[in-house]
Amino acid sequence: MTAQKGSAFLLKISDGATPPAYQTVAGLRTTQMSINGDTVVVTHKQSGGWRDLLSGAGTRSVSVAASGIFLGSAAEAAIRAHALAGTIADYELSFEDGERLQGRFLVQRLDYAGDFNGERNYTLQLESSGAVVPA
User: Fold this and answer.
1) Nearest-CA neighbor of 39 among 55, 24, 50, 23?
2) pLDDT tens digits, residue range 76-108?
3) What is the pTM for the complete model shown?
4) Whole-number CA gyration radius for the chain
5) Which domain does 26 fall in, by range?
6) pLDDT of 35-57, one tens digit each?
7) Which of 54, 81, 128, 131 is a good FRET partner for 110, with 20 to 30 A between their CA atoms?
């Protein structure tokens, strides 16, 4: 497996149409994805002192964190609108090797910051709602 460029790890938001078209969220400098899973422990007397887990059980989720420079793009405006309304939207994560993951996410947090004589930047946190699947 070859190394992949971080600049090719993109966050995209759906336009809400059917079929959806995805627009890259501009200005992002960092993007991070975490896949989380809760475990279901089924340890019993015959486990020999070792913990046993139930495969396929528990709750899975995907978290996405990103930060960048505010450019005023339509995608940024859509994210802000979803954050203010508390609505869930379709997003896509794409990677340099062509792999893509799609799912519905809620904007859990959206922060803006700016300094005098400096750029306005933002950070966001998305949490999955439902399955996140290869596209």
Assistant:
1) 55
2) 999 999 999 999 999 999 999 999 999 999 999
3) 0.89
4) 18
5) 6-134
6) 999 999 999 999 999 999 999 99
7) 131
- Give SS3 for 75: helix
| CATH code, domain carrying 30 | 4.10.410
Residue showing tokens 């460029």: 5
Does an H or E element contain 19, and which? none
Report the DSSP pairing between strands 120-128 and 22-24: unpaired
Say how far residue 71 (Cα) sits from the centre of its chain. 20
Residue 6 pLDDT: 82
Sequence letter at residue 50: W
Number of domains in the chain: 1
Contact predicate 121/114, CB 8 Å = yes
**Nearest Cα to Cα of residue 127 among 35, 7, 57, 40:** 35
Q: For residue 122, what are its two tokens?
A: 């933002």
The single-letter DSSP state of residue 118 is S
Q: Does residue 1 belong to any structural domain of this protein? A: no
